[in-house]
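S1.2 Input.
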Amino acid sequence: VRQFVFLYHVPFFFLLAGMFALSSLKYTLIQNIKKKIFSILIPYFGFCLMNILVIVIDQDVTKANLYTMLKQALYGIRNQIFANSLWFLPCLFIVYIGYDILTRALAKYTSNHTVILLIISFLLYLIMGVIGPSAPSWFFNLDSAMSYLVYFSLGAFIFPFIQDFKLLNQKTFVKIVNIGLCISTFAFAALMLFKGPNYLLAYLN
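S1.3 Output.
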């Protein structure tokens, strides 16, 4: 199950986070940055210091090791930090602020900014797949943020459609389509779980 969950847990995390993105637009950009500093970055550095403290107490840590850990905490790079899961927070901060800036810039020219931003973020995802580093290496996971922005944008895009959706109030055809999509999704998930993520690609050669 862990292997299966690790196929999608990071994209799903950013998709869920994106569902709350539009509600932050009622604040100014500066207000949002301040809010994200207090709700994301301060907890991030706090957890880093807690982890360092535990490691210092538990192990024989040299000054060089302590300096390395502090440097890792400052950079916050995925797979290069002593507390692996904490890379989520600086990456989420960059995604939030990046999405906010792009949304405000696009909203000046069009009311369909969520659609355009979804297209832009998908193009960024493709570009990072071609020219991005083979392993995460950019400050505060900017390289990962540019790749995961597409899932964040997708969450922001679909949330208005699902927020007030009530299956029982839909027409019979719509009910059948939605139930069919749900069954297909679970069937596909089961296929990936029991046959592996490369099963369809191998089958289609």
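S1.4 Remarks. The chain has nine helices and no strands.
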